Predict the 3D structure of the following.
Amino acid sequence: MGKRIMAKGKHRIKELLGELAIISFVVVTTTLLVAHVVINVLKTLE
Amino acid sequence: MPEAEFILKMSNGVYSAWKDNTENHFLGHIVLGEANGYGGPLTIAVSVNPSGKTIGAVIVAHKETPTWIKLVQKHGLLGSMVGKMYTDPFEIGNDLDGVTGATTTSKALAEAVFLGSQTAAQYLNLPVKPPVSPKIIFGFPESTLLALFGIGFIAHRRSFRYTKQIRWVSMLTGMVILGFIYNRPLTLVYITKLTLGYWPRWQTNLYWYFLIGGILLILIFRNRNAYCGWFCPFGAAQECMGVIGGCGLPKSRYHNAMRVLQRMLALMAILLGVYFHSPGLSNYELYGTLFGLVGTSTQFAVLGLVLIAAMFIRRPWCNYLCPIRPVLEIISIFRGWVKGLWQKENTGLRNS
């Protein structure tokens, strides 16, 4: 019983970490790309 | 022409330069030459001396991605055109060396300076050959592209049994030939450029017309995306990373929400490009960064993250960041809407 709960918990943690990895990837890369575009626009407006 | 102290405007963007305002010592003409670059029209001020020799060339206006311009300036391409006669061909790969990673910009610069020197020569009453229509360029990348469309068409037939294997052949061919060798993936710049009316000359840009035309035709008539999953070089590079890493992470529960972010990013790029009439300005794609090793430090950082992520997430760039996919999706939605209207109209006619 305990082993099953442990396995379930491990699986859930893995799932959550995966989710977190995907979300952080999207947030970080999107922010960097937006910054890249903004810098380009500002440089052109200068 | 730094020694010119008196510049007189003539007509059609032509200026004549004199040593002083007595107009006794004629130095030459300064002409504005224009050509179609990667992001749109590109204007160069070309100084030509009385014997028809180019003595200076400066970029006056451009709509290129700033990185490309920086690269071309760093390589001194314009400087290499100084000293050339108006009779010279001004051709990349012939009498001029192009800049790897910025081929289209290099070609446009050479063409603009050539046209400028020709106009100046006419004003100098020098014998100028009548302009010849450009040669149609149909080479290896164009034939590869057509072959890839053909492969996709055959592999999509229901009776075809080796779809999976053929898809890999198509992807790897796309990655190696269209990506690493020729660096010609489909970019948002070309789509924004077409919407702004900056249509490049078909004779020298057959590749782009085949690529965009082929994708649109297949999307409209068969509602299939012939490009992204089949021979997009960047998509293929990610799938190769996925093979290495195993691509074990399941699809996120927030997948759809993150796709909204992707659409917003694409919309922002298109709107900025259209607003500033400069498609290259809002370009954030990483294709040139991977295949031409040209880009800002931010782009290299994102490229690193994407390639690492591609080992664990299936096609992270395509699923969450690429601006091409939302554009194709919008076209597909529009197609469905028009088809619905057409069917409704037909049913109405039949019933009445």
Summary: The mean pLDDT of chain B is 90. The two ends of chain B are 76 Å apart (CA to CA). Residues 6-123 of chain B form a domain with the Sufe protein. Chain: A fold (CATH 3.90.1010).
